[in-house]
């Protein structure tokens, strides 16, 4: 396996507590966390005080080094404070989005995690913790002091800006830095998106967070004076390692929103002087479909916007940069491996995910495990110390990930310059009469049509070829695409076997909360369509 360039000298791992103490000492009045929704902020001095206060409260509830704390339905920035409070005493953080995974699934996940404590917002209505017979404490948002009880009891955690200065003097002492945690200690247990079945619970140690944070700093060229905007959920590992960890490592300013807002996006960038912004293809597509009417200088401070989590079409990439003048850095990572590749500001190539990250051994291999040559497609395989520890099993055991090469099931090719072009997931490949077809190739051609806003290609059963290709298309606003004309467009640019057999125009593509196309849901739609209209099961004559 070929190894990526290694940095000359990595900074040694340090606890979150040590990093906060450094930033508190060096830049006490600098904004640390900014809530852009409510336009309030917290300095590093205030953050350090808040984290210590939360940690003491956790200790009173029996949370210690190595115990598991579930943060259920917590929104940023409260989640960040609670997370840091748990890490301050060496606890393991387990973020859980109950509405996303569903009540019954959440209960099963709690049975597997077996936490010491579940933390919920004061106004949360979920009963999942009670159903799982797990102790619960509640908290009120630090940005909403009106919601804090006058006399918080033992079942309430108070966050910064509230009453932590008046808490009882019998609070347990905090452990010193030497006894908090080590790089190899478990740091978190995070659920994957769970588009099919029960989500996996991926387990990370502090070492992989540290290395992935260093890679984020390298990929984005992050600096201490940066102001990063993150509007994705911190339940996502991507948001944790792209924004949260570099903020801790550098002492930069982290601006957070609870979710993306098209109407407020330009104001956020301008008013908060954002220098780097997180992104996903869904957001880019949204901003292309309905362009913002914003002053020309709205994005003057922004030097780059990332794009990850789901594939980014080269067509949309070019459209976005032309429309807004914002440079996109397309990245590639996974819950199991963290960042694997990325474009850099000074070295980018549209249509690729850049080249391998510094702290991962990266290769592309054929079906025999032999490294592929330039421009030859194969499976991505990675290895190294920043891979996740493993996946937590129902019986409490850990199914290891780290310690051996991870075969990702992602298909890619690397060109002579080292840039990696993603092709597809192995599960998404369409095999028509023995010909392997990558959906993205068809999607890129279809997306270039002026009447197409979004598209997904997938394979469906065919009695003759085994599989046949169909496309689901979302029309550009104000247009009514002709299905035959769209197929004719594909025939002009694709060989016959890759031309979609049928095109269906729908209102929107089904996507997960993380922007990934739910192809199984599309297959269900296809079954419903062909069963309702048998004539569509017959191919058109070419």
| Category by helix and strand content | alpha/beta
Tally of individual helices: 14
| Principal-axis shape | globular
Any low-confidence stretches, pLDDT <50, length ≥5?
Answer: 147-151, 161-167, 536-542
Count of strand segments: 27
CATH class category name of the largest domain: Alpha Beta
Task: Write down the overall mean pLDDT.
Answer: 88
Strand % is 15-25%
Description:
With about 550 residues, the protein is α/β, with parallel strands linked by helices. It has three domains: about 45-160, Rossmann fold (3-Layer(aba) Sandwich); about 185-365 and about 385-405, Rossmann fold (3-Layer(aba) Sandwich); about 430-535, GMP Synthetase, Chain A, domain 3, CATH 3.30.300.30. The strands form six sheets. The chain has a nine-stranded mixed β-sheet, sandwiched between helices. A five-stranded parallel β-sheet has the order 4-3-5-6-7, with helices on both faces. Strands 8-9-19-20 form a four-stranded antiparallel β-sheet. The radius of gyration is 24 Å and the shape is globular. The model is unreliable at about 145-150, about 160-165 and about 535-540 (pLDDT under 50).
Question: Which key features would you list for this structure?
Answer:
alpha/beta, 14 helices, Rossmann fold, GMP Synthetase, Chain A, domain 3, disordered C terminus, 542 residues, 3 domains, five-stranded parallel beta sheet, nine-stranded mixed beta sheet, globular
Give a quick precis of the structure.
The chain is an alpha/beta fold. The chain is built from 14 helices and 27 strands. The radius of gyration is 24 Å and the shape is globular.
């Amino acid at each position: 396996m070929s190894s990526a360039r290694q940095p000359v000298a990595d900074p040694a791992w340090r606890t979150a507590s040590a990093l906060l103490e450094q930033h508190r000492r060096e830049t006490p009045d600098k904004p640390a966390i900014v809530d852009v929704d409510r336009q309030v902020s917290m300095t590093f001095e205030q953050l350090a005080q808040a984290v210590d206060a939360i940690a003491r409260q956790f200790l009173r509830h029996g949370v210690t080094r190595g115990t598991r704390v579930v943060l259920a339905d917590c929104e940023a920035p409260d989640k960040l404070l609670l997370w840091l409070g748990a890490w301050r005493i060496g606890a393991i953080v387990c973020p859980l989005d109950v509405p996303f995974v569903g009540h019954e699934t959440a209960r099963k996940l709690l049975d597997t995690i077996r936490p010491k404590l579940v933390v919920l917002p004061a106004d949360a209505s979920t009963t999942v913790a009670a159903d799982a017979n797990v102790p619960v404490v509640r908290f009120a948002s630090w940005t909403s002091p009106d919601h804090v009880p006058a006399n918080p009891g033992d079942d309430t955690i108070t966050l910064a800006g509230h009453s932590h200065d008046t808490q009882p003097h019998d609070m347990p002492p905090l452990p010193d830095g030497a006894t908090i945690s080590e790089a190899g200690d478990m740091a978190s247990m995070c659920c994957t998106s769970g588009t099919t079945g029960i989500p996996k619970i991926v387990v990370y140690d502090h070492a992989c967070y540290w290395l992935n944070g260093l890679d984020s700093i390298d990929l984005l060229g992050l600096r201490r004076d940066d102001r990063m905007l993150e509007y994705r959920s911190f339940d996502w590992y991507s948001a944790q390692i792209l924004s949260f960890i570099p903020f801790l490592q550098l002492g930069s300013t982290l601006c957070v929103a609870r979710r993306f807002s098209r109407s407020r996006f330009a104001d956020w960038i301008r008013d908060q002087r954002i220098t780097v912004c997180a992104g996903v293809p869904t957001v880019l597509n949204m901003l292309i479909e309905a362009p913002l009417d914003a002053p020309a200088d709205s994005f003057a401070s922004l030097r780059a916007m990332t794009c990850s989590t789901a594939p980014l079409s080269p067509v949309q990439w070019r459209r976005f940069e032309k429309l807004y003048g914002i440079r996109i850095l397309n990245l590639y990572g996974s819950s199991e491996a963290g960042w694997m590749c990325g474009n850099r500001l000074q070295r980018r190539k549209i249509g690729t995910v850049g080249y391998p990250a510094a702290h991962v051994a990266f290769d592309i291999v054929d079906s025999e495990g032999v490294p592929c040559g330039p421009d030859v497609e194969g499976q991505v395989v990675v290895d190294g110390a920043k891979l996740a520890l493993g996946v937590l099993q129902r019986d409490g055991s850990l199914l290891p990930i780290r310690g051996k090469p991870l075969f990702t099931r992602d298909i890619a090719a690397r060109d002579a310059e080292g840039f990696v072009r993603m092709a597809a997931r192995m599960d998404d490949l369409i095999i028509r009469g023995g010909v392997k077809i990558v959906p993205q190739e068809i999607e890129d051609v279809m997306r270039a049509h002026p009447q197409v806003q979004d598209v997904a290609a997938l394979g469906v059963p065919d009695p003759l070829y085994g599989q046949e290709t169909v496309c689901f298309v979302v029309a550009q606003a104000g247009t009514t695409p002709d299905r035959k004309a769209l197929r004719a467009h594909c025939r002009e640019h694709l060989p016959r076997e890759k031309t979609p057999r049928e095109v269906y125009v729908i209102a929107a593509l089904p996507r997960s909360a993380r922007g990934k196309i739910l192809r199984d849901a599309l297959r269900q739609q296809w079954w419903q369509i062909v069963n309702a209209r048998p004539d569509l099961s017959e191919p058109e004559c070419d």
